[in-house]
Amino acid sequence: MTKITRSELVDIVYHFYPRGMLRIDRIHVLPGEVVYDDTEEHCRLMVSAARGRREYPTWKAMIHRLQKQYSVQDESLLLFSGGTDPAYSGRVWLTDKTTINFHVSLLGPYYGIQLPGIPEEESVAREVAREIEATYAGYQTIPPDIGNEVVPDVTVNVVAFGDATIYVCLFSEVWTQVYRDLVTNW
Amino acid sequence: MALYASITLGFLGLVSGGFGAGPIPIGGAPTYGDFNAYVVHSLPTEPKAPPGAGIFVPIHNPSDFPFSIIVPDDGAGPSGGWQAAKANLPFKKVNFLSVITWYCPITIQVPIRHWSRGYISPGAAAVMSAAVTNSVAATMASGSDYELPQGIFCSKFTPGVLAAFSIMYPGLGVRVTL
What is the DSSP letter of A156? Predict the structure, then answer.
């Protein structure tokens, strides 16, 4: 495993997200003005998403293997509506109110598993990690002290400018949606 | 608002009293798990209108959200399928004797089958979407957000919709994009 550095990850973020730009739609600017979606960075993100769609069968097969043991929800289908998610994402329902989230980045060899902090999570998290590492050889996790750093000058999809962490940039805003003791009104 | 005399009855977006004032946090009151991500606890079960909002007249209708299937449900796993609706949502404000209208493009995406909600029809997805966007519009109307430049307003509205879905329909896995 190679050592992951903050500068390496920030370089990746800036390769795929334009710096200093809000995500303003074209209809709100003067004709011909360059908007977020016109930038080279966003175009690279679109190329990565297209690769995600081409290679989706690999992810889907892994999801199916996990579904034999756990209740797994695939959160990657947004890619097929033209979305530019930076990662595949999935969710294991440990109980009817608590989930483990897991992500495999399309922007680099990184994966992430988010734990809700309940006793049942450990064995499931180990199995999910084992499956990811077997399916995506060479991928590694990002330490929280680096991943939780905010990148102050980028916008990620609908995450406001300056609010996205390195984790969100590499794994999408689904990173912010871990459920524990969910009180539902369904 | 006085220009919108007709109210669509039986429409989930019609609320009075009670939306929580201020920004809607993503997923409710945040605490931190292993990766310092927001972890959702004890979400409110009822959306609340902004204080002093009175009767809020919904400005978005379910018909604004024409959901179509992107990925059919294959029946496997606890959830399946994917549907999306692109909309250009209108916003209006009265400025002296004129009405200013602007539009926010938004795409709302919802699973077709959810492990606990079951089958989510395009109509149900449209009703949920209108309820959420109206609740966010009400919250923004109660502050000074309607005075923002239109592009900035929309860049605040869209994250608000994503956050509101997490509160009003938690665990559904809705995604919101431009």
Answer: B
Residues 6+ apart with CB under 8 A from A106: A48, A49, A51, A52, A85, A86, A87, A88
Contact list, A80 vs chain B (CB under 8 Å): 70-71, 82
> Could you give the strand order of the β-sheet that contains B82-95, starting from the edge strand earlier in sequence?
B68-71, B82-95, B98-110, B175-177
* Structure tokens that stand for B102 in this block: 């602007």
The length of chain A in residues reads 186
Joined together, the tokens standing for residue B43 give: 């979400």
Q: For an interface test with A, which of B35, B102, B115, B133 has the most A Cβ atoms less than 10 Å from its Cβ?
A: B35
What is the per-residue pLDDT for A181? 65
Tell me which residues of chain A have a pLDDT lower than 70: 181-186
For B113-133, write each residue's pLDDT tens digit: 988 789 999 999 999 999 999
User: Distances in Å between the alpha carbon of B70 and those of A46, A83, A105, B3, B73?
Assistant: 18, 11, 22, 37, 10
